[in-house]
Amino acid sequence: MRLIDSHCHIDFPQFESRRQELLEQASLSGVDEIVVPGVTEKHWGRLLDCVSHHAGLHAALGLHPCFLDQHQPEDLKRLARLLETQTVCAVGEIGLDLFIPDADLDAQLFYLDQQLALAKQFDLPVLLHVRKAHDQMLQRLRRVKLQAGGVVHAFSGSKHQAMQYVDLGFKLGIGGTITYERAKKLRSIVSEMDLADLILETDAPDMPLSGYRDEINQPARVREVAEMVAQLKRCSVEQVARITTAQAVALFHSIS
Ligand SMILES: [Zn+2]
After folding, report:
1. Is-contact 193 165, C-beta < 8 A?
2. Ligand 1 centroid to residue 127 C-alpha, Å
3. What angle do the packed helices 44-53 and 73-85 form, to 10 degrees?
4. Which end of the chain, N or C, is surrounded by fewer C-beta atoms within 10 Å?
5. Nearest-CA neighbor of 11 among 170, 204, 182, 198?
6. How confident is the prediction along the chain (256 residues), in pLDDT tens digits per residue?
């Protein structure tokens, strides 16, 4: 069974001493390919270095909306240079977060719009982080029309919003949240969506799965996310793996 973790921060310092071991465990669970999203300009170098030292890791670069205080407009120029010169599979993670206290929507929109334009220019998919701002994001995506599409990571919207993303060529990123019984809305959306509209992820080290709440999350757990999706879709885990992996391969050109 071949699985892909489409969103895992394996470059983070929490993994420093155990990275190789966790990648081997992931491989034993069928997870040989991992997309590693960027968060701030300061750490893009660390991310590119990490990806170059391990097989199966794929870099995405972006400025995350929750770290606005660390972004500067010059970072966008460096991003454009790196997208031109490095092997990067997506622009991300980028987005809108109106859940964080004192969210500055205008500043978030400034970085989002510039990065959506870069994704369009380089014909790359985007990894979107969106909380409490799906309608604003959908409005943006309708305007910019990204041919390469992308993933709405850790999808948290409504069924209606899910359908609108799919119509725009986006996939829903499904992770550990789905393993919690209280995630009733998300579970019902997943059970009704087409498997081809879903992509699997962990967001490790964040978003631990049910049953592992005191541990940092790790890429091997994509396997358990796949098992939960299979249960909801009443199909085999092999089928979930086959279809979601095919979607990830089609989306991220550096994964074959
Ligand atoms: Zn993330």
Report:
1. no
2. 9
3. 20
4. C
5. 204
6. 999 999 999 999 999 999 999 999 999 999 999 999 999 999 999 999 999 999 999 999 999 999 999 999 999 999 999 999 999 999 999 999 999 999 999 999 999 999 999 999 999 999 999 999 999 999 999 999 999 999 999 999 999 999 999 999 999 999 999 999 999 999 999 999 999 999 999 999 988 899 888 899 999 999 999 999 999 999 999 999 999 999 999 999 889 8
CA of 203 to the centre of ligand 1 (A): 5
Domain spans in the chain, listed from the N-terminal domain onward? 3-251
Q: What distance in angstroms lies between residue 194's CA and the mean position of ligand 1's atoms?
A: 24
CA torsion sign, 219 to 13 to 177 to 252? Answer: negative
Residues paired with 199 in a beta bridge: 173
Nearest Cα to Cα of residue 252 among 72, 107, 51: 51
Task: Categorise residue 123: left if φ over 0, alpha if ψ from -120 to 50, beta otherwise.
Answer: left
For residue 187, give both structure tokens: 């579970």
43: enclosing H helix or E strand = none
Question: Distance between the two ends of the chain, CA-based, in angstroms?
Answer: 15
Q: Ligand 1 centroid vs 201 CA: distance in angstroms?
A: 10
Cα–ligand 1 centroid distance for 130 (angstroms)? 11
> CA angle, corner 174, sides to 170 and 180, nearest 5?
150
CA of 240 to the centre of ligand 1 (A): 22
pTM of the shown model: 0.97
β-partners of residue 150 are 126, 170
Domain 3-251 part of CATH 3.40.640.10: no
